[in-house]
Each structure stands twice: as structure tokens, then as C-alpha cells.
Amino acid sequence: MMLEILVSLIILTIAAALSYRDYRISFILSLIAIVPVAASGNAVYSALIVAVAFLNDFSLLVIRENQIAGVDYAMIAIMCIATLYAFIATDLAIMLTLFVVVSVPTYLLIMISDKEMNVDVGIKYVTFMVIATVLFLIGAVLLYSASANTMVYSIAFLMLIVGLSMEVGIAPVHEWVPDVFSSADPIPVSIVASLAKFVPFIIAYKIILATATPAIGPLILIVGLIAAASMFVGNIGALTTNDPSRILAYSTVANMGYILATFAAITAGKEYIYFAIAGGILQLFVNSFGKIGYFTSIKNGGTSPITAYLLTFSFIGLPPLMGFWSKLFIIYSLVFSSYTWLAVILVLNSAISVPYYIRLARLLGTGWKFSLANAVVLFASLAMLITLMPPTWFVDVISMMKGV
Amino acid sequence: MIELLALLFLAPVFASFPIAIAWGMDPRPEWARKLPILSVLGLFVSLCVALYILFNVGELSPDAEPVKYTIYWLPDFNINFVFIFDYLSKLMGALTAVIAFLIGVYGLEYMRDDYRLGWYWFFFNLFTASMLLVVYSDNLLMLLIGWEGLGIASWALIGHWFRDDDELSYVGILNRKVAGLNMFWSPSTGGWRAISTIRVGDMPMFFALGALFALTGTLNISEIPWAGLEEKIGVAGIVILMVAFLMGPFTKSAQLPFSEWLMTAMTGPTTVSALLHSATMVAAGTYIFMRLSWYIQPWNLHLEGYEYVYILVLFLGLASSLYGALVATSSLERKVLLAASTMSSLGLMFASAAASYWVGKIAVLVAFWYLITHAFAKASLFLVAGHLIHETHDRFLGGDTEVAKKLKTAFIATVVATICLSGIPPFTAYWVKSGMDGVMHHLEHEFGMLPLALLVTISAIYSGFLGKFLSMNFFKGKKVHLHLHGGGIMSTAYLIMVSMLFVILGLYLTSHEEPFRDFFHEGLISSSLTVGLIVLVAYAIGLFKPQFESPVGKFLGDRMYMMFLNDFIVPKIGWAVAKVVEYGNRLIDFTCHQAIPQMFEVYSLGIRFIQNGKLDRYLQIVIGFVMLIVVVAVAAGWII
Amino acid sequence: MISEYTLVVSLLIPLIATFVLPALKPRVAALISTLSFLVPMVVTLALLLTLQNFEIPIATLKAPIGDFYLLADPISNAFGFTICLVSAMVALYSLPYMKHRFEEMVEVGETKDIDWEFRKYWFLYNLYAVAMLWLVYAGNLILLYIFLEISLLASFLLIYMYGYGNRQWVGILYFVWTHIAGVLALLGFLMIGFDNQTLALHSLKAVGFLPWLLIFLGMVVKLPGLGPHIWLPWAHAEAPTPVSALLSPLTVGLAGYVLLRIYLVDPSFIVEYRDVIIAYAIISSVYAGFSVFKQKDYKRLLAYSTVSQMGYVLIALCLGSYGLIGVVIQYMSHAFGKSILFMTAGAIIATFHGLRDVEKMSGMHEYVPTVANAALIGFMTLSGILTIGMFGEFYILAGLTQVYGFNLAVILAVVLVFTISGLYSFYTMKVIYYGKPAGYEKPKFSRLLDMPLYFIAFFSVAFIFPPLSTALLNGMKILFGIGGGLP
User: Fold this and answer.
1) Which of B610, B620, C71, C462 is deepest in the core (most CB within 10 A)?
2) Would you call B76 an interface residue with chain C, using a CB distance cutoff of 8 Å?
């Protein structure tokens, strides 16, 4: 796979070099750059990630007047390649590199806009990300090096979790999310909310599984509590707001809570770990497609009611949409790992979330006009339908992931 | 046989479809008003079948083996349409059919100009078919179909004039109030009171059915092992079961304290009152009790549980009868007077049939023949009353000799019916009442002279108010204005009806069969004659001095204020509960749909309050959280 | 084999129709929709009469999901028949009613294009009914759950778009409550799946306490029992009437269906906590029954009556094998009766321009006699007079004696429950249809607003007579294993 990555990087370098001439060259080369790596990985996983990345790329076309036009596509491509590579990475150093590689481009991306640079937002975001990265890295390294000592192990474990929480926006360290999401440009936010979320979680899964000791039991309980808190904060926080971006910010907090809850299932048997991780990653896909769809339609000033409701129902978790299966897998794994209370809290939260998702659909489902942004929204919402075929196939994919 | 039965039950129902459908058509066709003839034809068909059954199916004698005919229904549950043709059902069926047919004929004229003929005839015929079903069925679930049919049809017919716009259809003096309670009832109220009372009785009865089925696996009255049942469920079980079962008959037959609906059932057209209160609906209750007794044969069992039940029925019947008689004496409305008298008669039937526990089958026969005699007499009186209301446009008692002259047929029919019903020797009811005297006399051993004394008192009062009815309508009533129009069909109908009384009289006097021979013998005993004389005197008093003013009379005329139970106590309790429940609903509604969402809102605002946009605050939170986690981690590591 | 084939085809017809309907004109769509349900109605009735009991495999998934298959036994057929009958008739009825509703919405400017609204409506309506129909034939709990959610979704959208009053709030309220119910049940299903390594009904062995509890709680919310019942009056009263006429008669009762299916796998939970459950059921039924009297809104009144009737289902569930027969029959009788009644309410709303305040109604028989007569049959069905409801009550009472013997308190309570139904039925008849006419004009109205009611009424009455009752009850008897000629 190294070779493919090398090829990709060369293409990307060319792309960046040519971007000052015409952004279109850069755009197309960025898309091409992803292909070699994608072709060599797991087909299903690659296809889904590439779909997310392509949607991000296309949505960036909407703000092609931005400050770093041309380079932004390459950044997406790099993030995409890193995310694809995360599937097979098992070595700690590589994993941590991937973490950083995915994280850093967003520092820049978050500030861009087709109007003026959002430096203020950038500062907040970068501050949080830096702390998060530091905590995550220290935690990971400590886990690998000193797991014999339970005291160190627990500190390391929790540092990792707190780092992860800050990185993706899990309460109570989610403060950057509502601010950034509501004041930055919707398109870069949709990237931060989608493509950037995969690697931290996948790596965290891998690290925790690789270093698990029997002392993990009570620590898992703490993770469960944080997850529950995040669900509540996210869903309740979203209830009273009418600003779509802010609703989406809190919805992200809640969704990250759902995914963090899968860490509670890590003590269960092997096949349930697959379900847990499959649930978590599927929920990430739901969140990605959903956020891309929603944010792009915010940028576009509305979309068709049908697509808006499709996204909404997927988030609420109605079968046979993707959001149903992801929650199903999560609940499934939680129940089996004797975290029924967490499952019940999840159910409760999915009920609390109903009003604001429907409000969101109403706010955004104002009418269909053909445009690039709307096409992106349409594809994002159609992606929710890929689970018309019950996604047991996704569990199979996860079982092929290296290091879990 | 199956064709005959189909004719018997379906002919009246199907014959009423044309009018029911035509009346609902929009616009209504011209010929719709002629269609009632079809319905009456349907009634005629079932009359023919009933008479055929009476004479040709099996032997007509109290000791004959019943003939049964089964049509499969739920064979896997051993529940089938089982028709039984025994002494009781054959006679009762014929009686029902005759009376229904005659009233149907009468109704052709009486209801000619009504605004709701489709409804009327459909339910009239449904009612008849239901009654026949009740009469002929051996299976209790099948009986229940007829029973519920009676209930719903009676509701429909009592409330027939649903608009409540005709003063003639009310019961009670308009706008009169006692202690804040309306003392007048509209047809829609009458219907509601009827069905609500009946439902209260039917449901326990239905439970008894379910219980019988679960316990014995059969629902055929003639096959249920009544004797074995007491061994199975004990004395208390039998009492609960039987009382639950009898709740149905008690409410249908308007025994105390369920009597009120019967009085306000008079809001229906007179034909309906005549049909309901002579041989059908209300008699169905007593009929069922007789039929049960016929097959339980408590006189052969002597089981404690049944004894309690029969004592209850005996005294409840007598008490209701006394109550009915007293109310009737003081009643001022033609139909209400007759209704109260019906209640009184029903009480006597219950009491007499209940006495069978100690006396034997003859008591049931006495009750049954009293039912038949009463049916014809009462139906005639109702029809006469209807005719009078029709001609005078007044539902209160009234009329002087002029009425008697102008409406000779009505007058004659009234005289015959009252005399024959009151038990004046040697007219029809005298013989069967003598039989009843004998039955009550038999109870001396168990209850002393009380039943007999009550019976004599009741008979006297009964005959008194019959005399009063005659007098107040044809001699001494207030002057009324007559609007004579037609009436030919009506008077023919009730003349035929009243002449049936003579046929029965003939039977009593000439037949040498059981039970008439017994009646005849009882009638010749001097004590019976004495009672007959008392009755005669009472009748004469009623005739010559029909009215006294007295507060007691007012109390009785207001039916001892029993309506407070129906219209005040029970509804008050019900509404109180409904109110509590409503508050409960509001509370739950508020909690779930206001309080909790508001709570969420408050929390939500709290969560959003954190976002003041200042990075230093966020960092404080982050650092705080990290510190907390480190502490927790250290603690966790230490514990582990 | 032939009956398997017929069933599949007839179940597919309405499903295909769902996607065809939006392309058609409203009138044609109404007709096609009706026909698409009449075909499976006839088929299910035939299956019911011939006591069919078979399975049609669809797919086999790996553990713990297990086989997907269609399950056609007398229970499914009885429920399926009811759903088809009611859906077909309500589809006909929808045409004039929704026309009225859309015109009303045009008046207040909520929509412009009636034809477009009708397209959406027919799609959602058929989807809703079809999901319920497939639900009762689903042989796998996951499949069952999926159909449950689809029906929820379609009905939610119908309320949300075409309801009355504060319809968006009501829609969300409905969604949240039933979503909780659905997901709780889902949790229970999953746990069953783990324990048995399959979710196919035919291979389930046991249902543990916790999954039973979760499913029970979920279904009590959906059924609903006292407490959670509070969502129902809102949803059923504010939904457009054809939707109420599916929601109340069909959907909520499906909770009873789910409980029945689980019970047939493993009755342990109900048997163990029978006393508590029956007490709760009785209290909620009586409670809701009393609530009916105080309602001022015709549809709300009917909604409370639904709560009371669903109490019967819960009561019946506790009463042994006779009780199970009671569950099925009660579902059917309530569906027949309540669909008729909601349609009468709708007929009045459509003819008198949104009239639903009971206090403004009086002597309505004068103006809409056919509707009044239909309402009478509806109420007769609810109170078990001369209609299929009679059997429901009978088997509940027989079961009562079988299980509780002569326990006076339980007897009185159940008798009270039944009595109250009769009382509020006829009280409502009196208040709305009887008495002095309220002084409206005698209206002209579409025959489609009353004829479908009589079609349902026919079956309601026909089901007490052979051959329908014979076959239905015989099927139940075989299924519930009530042995021998005598119990």
C-alpha cells in the first residue's frame, strides 16, 4: 500500500503546484489522487469513505472563491487517504501520524470562506485541537509503554478518552462545537463534522483493544457516563434553538456520545466488538452524510422537503435507513455487554431528539432548486438508503479491519 | 325444520328491510308509506310458523319430553344453535307471535303518519324476531343474541321520537321539578334510561354465561348439570353465579330497584309500550327464570345455594309487585299506570315461579299461565290507551261517559280486560290467581302467612287501580276533547286481542288437562272465593271513587322518588368519578406534555448558557474536566 | 402451494399500488387503493375460512437474526382480514373527506395544489396500511419491528401534514411516544435474539424476564395503558379522520398482536405477573371509560374509548387460552366498531364544516340519519351487542372464570369495565344523535361518506353467525390448543 500512497502524494504535489493556474486541475487531480489508495483497500470501506470525501470535495466547489482555493481539494484528498489507511494501520507511530494528518488540515479549512477569513473561529478551534492532540498522543503512548501499572494505565486511558472527546466534540469538553459550527462557513464545518471524525475513533478503538487489561472495567463505566452526558447535553441543548447550524452542532455532540457509548461494549465477546465498532463507524457515516447534507443545504438556503426528511428520519433512526442500523448495532452491542442502562438512555435520547430533527427538516425543507449544492444534498441523503439491504455486510467489513 | 325456523326468525327481519331502506333513500319514494304492510306480513309469517310449532311439534303437555333441533354454530366449543320446543317455549312463542302480529296490525294505522317509519318497522320486527329467539333457544349464547336484540330494539323503539319535540311523547308533567330534579322525561332520555339499566343487568348475566361455559362446557339450559354445579363451586359459588345470571332478568323485568326505566319507557309509541310490556321484553325476564326453574328442578334438588337464590327471588318479586301496585294506584298517566301495573304483575310471576322450590312444578305453571293471561289483557289495555291518546291528544287519565259512548269498542275492551285481569270470579285471571293463592298458601311452612297476605293485598290494590283506570277514562275523568278520526283497524286489533281472554277462560273452565284442572279446583275453594270477593270490592271502590287527594298519593304517584336513584345518586357518583378522572388526565397531560418539555427547555438553556463565546471560559472548563478525570483516574487506579 | 402463492401475490398488490397511486388522479387512486386492499381481504378471508396455517420462507440470515418468512396462521389471517377490510373502506371514504380537508387547507392558504396533496396523501396512506398488513404476516421480530416503524412514520407524516389544530406539535408528540414504544420493544427483541440466537418466531424457545418487560412496557405505551395513554387522545383527535380511522382501530391494537405473539412463544411473564397486569388493565380501562363522559370533542371522546377498549386486550391477555381468543376477537371487533365511529365523526366534520364539538351537536339523526345509524352499529360493536364484540366479551368472561374462578373482586371489576363501555356508548348516542335537533340545514353529502361504514358493519354482524364465526373460532381453538370437545 505504501506504493499507492506514494503515487497519490506525487499526484497531490502536482495538483498543489498547478492550483495557482486553474482550480479545476487541482480539483480533478485531487479526485484522481484518492483512487490508487482507495482501490487497494477494502472495497466497501473505501467506497464509503471516498463517497464522503467526494461529497466534501464537491461541496467545496460551492465556495470556490475561498482564500486557499485549489489547495483545499488536496487537503481533502490527504485526509481521505489517511482515513483509508487507518483501516489497515496497526503500528502506533503510523496511527498517531494519521491522527495528526487528519487533524491539521482542518485547522486551516475551518477558517476559509467565500467571504472573509474566520480567524476568530480558527483560534478557538485550533486551541482545542492542540490540547486534544496532546492529550491523545500522550495517552496513546503511555498506554503502549506503561500498561503494567494500573495507575498509569487508568490515567493514560482517560487521557486518551478526554483527548478523543475534545477532538470530536463530546460533552463536557464540547464547547468549541456550537461556537465553531454556528459562526464558521457551513461548508468547511461539514468537513470537520464528517471526514475528520473517522480517524480519531478508529485509532482509539485500535489502541484500546490492543492495550486492554483487566483493569479496564471501571474505566469503561466512566466512558459510559461521559457518553451518556454527551447524549443528554447534545440532545437537550438542541431542543430550544432555532438556528440550524447550532442544532447541528448539538446534534454532533449527541451523535459523538452515541459513538463513544460503543467503547462500553469493548469488554464483550469478539463478535459483539465487531457489532460495536460497526455500529460506531456506521453512525459516523450517518453523521457524515447527514451533516454534509444539512450544512450544504444551509449554505444553499434550503433543499427539497423529501431529502430533508430523509436525512431527519435517518438521524432519528427509522428503519430501513442507515441511522436505524447504526443505532441498532450500538444498542445490540450495549445490551449484550450488560450495559442495558446505557442502551435505555440511548433510546430515551433518540426520543428526545425527535422534535429538533423534525424542526430541522422543516427549516431546511423549503423547496427544490437545481444547483450543485442541492446535488450534493441529494446524494448525501440517498446514501442513507444503502442499508435497504440489511448491513450485516458492514459487520463483515469491520471484522476485516486490522487490529480489532 | 330448518326452513321453518328460517321463516320464523328471518321473515320478520327481512320483511322490514324494504321499508328501512326505502325510508333512508333520498329523496324518499312515494310508495315508501305503503311498505309497512310488508313488515306486518313478515310478522304474519312468523305467527303461522309459531302456531304450526305449537300444534305439530311434539306433544303439548307439561310433562312432554322437549323436542330439540340443532344447527351447528361453534361445534368445536359445543356451542350451537339449539332450538327447544317444550311446553313453555311453544306456548310462549305462539303468544309472542300473536301479540306482535296484532300490535303490528294496530300499528299500521297508529303509526301511519309517523316521520320515522323505516326505523320503527325495522326495530319492531327485529324486536319480535329477537323475542322469538329468546323463547325458542336452549343455548344460552344464542339466547343472548335474542336478549341483546331485545335490549337494542327496545332502546331504539322507546327513543323512537328522538326529536323530543312532542309533548305527547313525554312522561311526567312538563317542567315539573322536585328537589331540583326534573320530573319529566323525554323519549331520548327514556331510551337512555332503558338501555343503561339493562346493560347493568346484562353484563353480570353475561359473566354467568361465561362462567357456566368454563365450568360445565355446555350452554344448553336443558343439559347443564345444575345439581353437580353446586358440588363444584359450593354454596357461595352458586349464589354468585345465579344472582349474576338473574341480574339480567331482574333488570329486563324491572324488578326493584331497576324499575325506573320501565316507567319512562312509556315515551315510546303506544304500540311499543304494548309490545314491550305485555308478552315480550319485560316478560322475557320472568320467562327465562321459569325456563331455568323448569330445568334446574330445584324442588328435586333441595340444595342450599339454590334455596337462598329462590328466597331472594320470591321476596324481591313480592316487594316489586307491591311497589308496582302502589305506584299504579296513584299514577295519573294512562300509560304509566299500566306500566306500573305491569311491574306488579311481573313481580307476582317471579314470586310464584320462585315458590316452585318448595311447591314444585305447578308453581311455575301458575306463573306461566298468569303471564299469558296478563299478556293479552295488558296488551289490550295498552292498545286502548293508545287509541284514547290518539283521539284525545292527552296522555293523562281523563274522559267521561261521552268517551264511552263515542268509543264503544274501546270501552268494551277496557271493561273486559280489567275484569278479566283483576281476578274477579269467575273471569279469566280469577282461576290462575286462585292457583297462585294456593301456591303462596303452601309456603306457610317456610315463611308463615306473609307471602299469601302480600299476594292478597297486591291483588286487591291491583284490582282497585284497574277499576280506577276504567272509571277515570270512561266515567269520572275530566272532560276531554275528542278528535275522532278513523280508528277502525286499531279497534279491530284490540278487540281480537281482548277476545283471546275468553278463549283462555274457556280453557280454564273446560280443559281436563294439567294445569287447568288444578286451577279449577283451587278456584272452587272457599278461601279463593273470599279473595275473589275482596278483589271485587276493591274493583268497585276503584270504579266509584277513583280519586283521593292525599300526600301519600303524591308520594306514590311520584313513584316513591325512586328516580333519585336513576337520575341523581348513580349519575352523581358517575360524574364525580368522571371529574376525578378528568383531573387525572389533565395532570398527566400537563406532566408529560408541558412540565417535562419545559424542564428540558430549562436544561437546554442552561447547556447553551455555557456558550458565551469566550475562549478562556472554555479553557477553564476543559482544564477543570481534565483535573477531574485525573483525580478519577488516580482513584480508579488505586481502587483497582 | 396454491394458497401460498395467492397470499404472496395478494399481499404484493397493495404494496405495488402504493407506488403507482401517486401517478393517478384522485378518483382513480381511491378506487385502485380500495381494490388493492379488497383483493387481499378476500384472500385472507378465504384462508381464514379454510383454517390455513403455513409459512412462506423469504430469506435466511445469520444468527441472531434468523429466518425471514411470512407467517399465515389464523391469527395473522384474522388480523390481516381486519386490516384489509378497514383500509379498503377508509380508502374509499378518504376521497370525499380529504377533498374537503384540502379545500379547507387551500382556504387558509396552507397549500395551493389539491392534486399534488392527493398524490402525497395516497402514497402515504397506502404505505401506512400496507406496513400494517405486512406486519401481521411478518415471521421475524426484526421484520415486524421494521413494519411497525414504517407504519409509524407514514402515520406521523399524515398527521404532521394534514392534521388539525396544532398538528405539528401533535405529530411530534405522537412520534416521540410511539418511537419510545418501538425502540423499547426493539431492545426486547434484540435480547430475545441473543438468548435464542434467532429472531424468527417459529424457532424462538424462551423469552427472559428483561426482554419481556421491555416489550411489555413498549407495547403498553403503544396500546396504550393508563399513564402513557395521554398521547392517544391528542394524536387520534387531531389526525385527519381517515388516518384516525386507521390509527385507532388498527395501529394501536397491533401492540396487542405483538404481545400475543410473544405470549405464544413464552407466556412466563404474563403468567407470573398476571394479577398485577390484570389490575392495571382493569384500572386503565375503567379510567378511560370514565374519561369518555367528560369529552367535548367527538374524536377525542372516541380516542378515550379506544384506550378503554385496549384495556380489554390487556385483560384478555391475562386470561389463559380463552383470553387469547378474546384478544383476537376484541381486536377485530374494536377495529370494526371504532373505524365506523371515526368515520361517522369525520362525516359530520366534512358535512358541517369542521363540526366536532359535542355540545353543538344534538339530534344529529335528523340531519345525517345514515351516519347516525352507522354510529349505532359502531357503538353496538363496542359494547358487544349483536356483533362480533359479543364473542370478545364472552371469551374474556369464560377465561375469567377459568383463571380466577369466583373471585368476586375481579368479576365485579371486569363486569364494570364492560358495563361502562355500554353506558358511554349509548350516552354518546343520546347526546350527539338524539334529543332536540340542533338547527342545522339538512345537508347533501357524498354517499362515500356513509356506504363504506355499512360494509364494515355488515362484517361486524356477520361474524357472529356461521360460517364466519365457526371458522374463526375453530381456527383459534386449534391454534391455542384448547383440547377436546370440552375445555
Assistant:
1) C71
2) yes
